Fold each of these.
Amino acid sequence: MSTPLWVTRRGNQSRASRVQQRRRRARAAVVLARVLALAAVAFSPAAPVVAASAGRVANGLPAPFETLVALILMTVAVVTVVELAAAAASRLTRQLDGRRADPSPGDAESEPWLPGATRPAVLGLAVLLSGAIVLGAAATVGPWWWLVSAAALATGALGAIHLSPALVAAVLGARPLGDPATAARLSALSRAAGVPIAAIDEVASGERPEPTAFVAGLGRHRRIFLSSVIVREWQPGEIDVVVAHELGHHRRGDLWRSLLVDTAVIGGGLAVAAIAASAGVVSAPSAGVVALPGIAWVAGSFWVVSAPLRHAQSRHQERQADAFALRLTGQVEAFTSVIRRLGKIHVADEQPTPLARWMTSRHPTVSERLRAADRFRQSRS
């Protein structure tokens, strides 16, 4: 009896490939669930029913507060439906994969500094502010609401970047780095990089002690954040290299480039939503909160489709930040040690398919980064 082809293929895969395939399936299922749930609200009687109910609750309040209360109620309803669908999709894919794939830690995909319990609140606040901007722009500039909204959202993102050091410190309970030698070394590194730093903080690693190091903020308000596991377990050269990489993003202006690309994508999505509203596919924002689910669905779908562009830019920036870290520190062995360590922790896939690479990979593969380090070593010798 011959072995089924799918069994042979799975047997030839590395554990990392299987783990990453599981993660990609889970992420794809969550994205699809969110898109479908939002479409179900936007293109069914659900949106008018929720909008009418919110209007009745807010009826009689002064005009600004009436709109605000209706917007809050619509946001809570939509975000709840979408996140419940995402949670169900995530649970289902994990159950199905658990029957035929080896278990592994680290399947959760999240921002390194954002606790899981905080994410729904942050998402709801972002949706609420975005909806308020769209409604306000429609009331003031009419058909150009999409352009003004994109500019306002970019300004808000810039403000959030500026405030991010204080927000991160508050959320994670950061404290000044208690190792004077490391603090002095990283301060000297930031000066050599030409990136002013206001403080160097340590944050608790949390339930999953994954290494986290990043530089938050703009100008002289920037702060370096290191997770406790890095401070405790990493060698000085490894800490220097990973911080130099993050400083490289700031030295090269990658935050500004990313903000520019993201603003263009958001503006494009809102422009498509405006065209769809003109064609009667979705309601125009002049109709009030009832239009927001449809606009969010069009703009959100545009964001998902733009993933290859955004990820290609991210991979380019990561390569340049790697090169900056190598030039700044000259510590090739520490760099290769960090890349191998992170690849092992995150169970990195060395052979992603072209589709997976373009749709999900924000970093070069481990082998690509190690080859870059070898080229740097050879160029120096």
Note: The longest strand covers residues 199-203.
Amino acid sequence: MIRAASLLLGIALFIIAGAVTAQAEQRAVTYAPGGIAISGYDAVAYFTAGRAVRGSAEYAIMWRGATWYFASPESLMVFEMDPEAYAPQFGGYCAYAVAEGQTGSAAPDAYFFYNDRLYFMHDLSMLRKMKSQLPEIVAEAEAHWPEALGQ
């Protein structure tokens, strides 16, 4: 009986380990090179300052598996109160890549707002080129999110 229980426990641990490994192989929900969301830029400042503002490790928080930096304690507090309102859509991945069913890197200065939400693109040239198509890109990306993470 003890031997059977040990065998079942071993099988269960093997299955759990496999599931954890499979999850680790999928892309992270938040695009965070080096574990830092938005490459260290302040998510709140896009809304309040209207531009990309570099954050500081002095004002940091862990959220959704990444470290988020802020330029001030006020920005940090605002984010803590409602992170969903300030965090970029699609985990900060490039909206165009997500629209294509993939995940791709995003540049902190290649951002746009659509329906009061923050989005990123791969770089400024892509953002300029796709500017007239942003609503369609967002709609396509919404159709592919979060499945794009499991590619």
Note: Residues 4-26 have pLDDT under 50 and may be disordered.
Amino acid sequence: RAKKNYVAYFEPEPPQPGQLGRPKSYGDKLKLMECFDYIHLFSTVSCQVYGRVEEVSILALNLIWKPTGGLIRFVFAVTSRGPIVLMCSDLNQDPVVALELYCTRTWIEVMFCHLKHLIGAFQFRFWSKKMPRHSRAPKTNRALTAPAATNLGKVQQCWEAYERFVMLGAIALGLLQLIALRFTASIWQQHRGFLRTRSRTLPSERTVKQV
């Protein structure tokens, strides 16, 4: 998502034959938020925004962005939550799909939150002295060497243990969600915890786990 103070540039016009000097790298400058002043250039489409289908005004432009030094697809959209500008490296990306994917990110973030805090899927403690030690600081890892050929099997087993542990946690989270969908009434009947206010009829993954 682009910030409100971002600027971009149109592609420069090709140089004329016999024109002296270095060809221009950038065309006219454009403040991204000013595009919403030309709402007549937008198309009105139906789009799913955070789980609700609504009419959205949308526009896609391929503009040059200085930090990347190349073209970026900017998607301008006016939703019920206000104007938004998205950036995509795929210059052929459908703007409606880009907006729906951005709105879906909250489900991914909630899933990782449950995996981390509710299931403990990232609290694995598999380790081997034959694995090279990594550091959070990139400079420290400059002298990092690959494990010896005789240790590759043990290192591969550690990586497989990591992946299996996380995948089993994801399966456990899916089972909690499935139980919440299939046995909603039974979960609430068996629940003995205190909830000040039920936010919804469907029990949460934490409620199902407690039961």
Note: Strands lie at 7-9, 29-31, 43-49, 52-65, 70-79, 82-88.
Amino acid sequence: MSAEANRKLVTDFWSALYRRDWDRIGGFFTADSQYTDMPTPSDEVATGPEQILARLQLGLERISDYQ
């Protein structure tokens, strides 16, 4: 993937995340994608779109806005 394609992918992801477009965010992850939050133990890894979305929503859904 080119640097420009990588930049677009990351920009698109953050744009979807800031809009809380959960359906769009799920499309960035495959079944073997993994995510963990910094303060959680390393063995508590979310795997796949459903688990990753659940983890992101847990931390971000209640935030009223970003400054």
Note: Residues 28 and 49 are 8 Å apart (CA to CA).
